[in-house]
Amino acid sequence: MKNSKSSAGQRLSSQPNSQALITSPVRIWSVPSCVCTLPVPIENCFGVLFLDSQNGVIAFEELFQGSINTCSIYVRIIVQKAMQYNASSVILAHNHPSSNPVPSAADKALTLRIKAALLLVEVNTHDHMIVTGNTLTSFAESGLL
User: Fold this and answer.
1) MPN domain spans which residues (predicted)?
2) DSSP states of 69-116 as a string?
């Protein structure tokens, strides 16, 4: 992991990358510009991996940054970006500067709100990943999604 404030709005490619198919939560590590850009432990940040219908990576964007213990997330912006990229699905990702990998009640509630909003425009939410150091916590694998 690297600490970087300059990665906001980073885009991998305008075309889906068949080499970076996301077939399991651990495959998110195969996207070099994705979760590895989420700062640990300085500040909270939240990014979205936009996928095509074959789970190929369209883009990753770090959409929101916050402080050491909070980050304001706007569901509307996530939906707008999904539509802009013509994404079929998304994987949400954010870090926990505290290094606590356990999803909070706020994390769970936010995930459900985002998932419901994206479903209205026929975009699936495959997972929500919490990044802490060199570990990932998957909502999907934990039965939270």
Assistant:
1) 21-145
2) S-----HHHHHHHHHHTT-SEEEEEEE-TT---SPPHHHHHHHHHHHH
